[in-house]
Amino acid sequence: MIDGPATTDKQKRFQSELESLFTRSSAKKARIFPPPVPVAPDVYTSLIPLPTLPSTDVYAPYSPLPLLARLRTYSRRGFTLLEAPLDAVTLARQGWIAVKADEVECGVCKARFSLHGLEGIRDVGVRREVVRRLGLGMKERHAADCAWRVRSCPGGSLETVSARC
Ligand SMILES: [Zn+2]
Prior knowledge:
By secondary structure, this protein is mainly alpha-helical. The protein has a domain at 64-164: Inhibitor Of Apoptosis Protein (2mihbC-IAP-1), Chain A, CATH 1.10.1170. 39% of the residues lie in helices and 7% in strands. It contains 5 helices and 3 strands, in the order H-H-H-E-E-E-H-H. It has helices at residues 4-27, 64-76, 88-93, 124-136, 157-164; strands at 96-100, 103-106, 112-114. The protein has a 3-stranded antiparallel beta sheet with strand order 1-2-3. Helix 2 (64-76) crosses helix 5. The longest helix is centred in the N-terminal third of the chain and has 24 residues, at 4-27. The protein is rod-shaped, with a radius of gyration of 30 Å. The N and C termini lie far apart (81 Å). The site of zinc ion has 9 residues, from loops.
């Protein structure tokens, strides 16, 4: 035999437990994945000053800020800008930084290569051919175990940098 008031108490307790389950679950949901780790923003507007550029001896082919740091060495060191594929953009995408006028160095493997004297070639056709052939072999001028030898910055990374600057 079930007592009337006892049943009512049980029902009330059941109802309150049931409601507390629903209110607790709606108030605070359990996370399945850990909260996202804050990362550097992808877009820097002109109103926000650029962050401190990273070191040029870091291998990060997919990061625009190290690419920008390598590109800045060309303007600061008085590098004579040649046409592609020995222009500053292509060299920086392959991990090269300017250490002197017309001399580049890899920040990772410290391989150096001088491009001195190319602008002295008077015949434009000959100079373009020399530049083209030298440019084809720039990846192989890294040390055998250098990561830049395997993977350069992808083609769209320059557009990313210029669009953000
Ligand atoms: Zn290297």
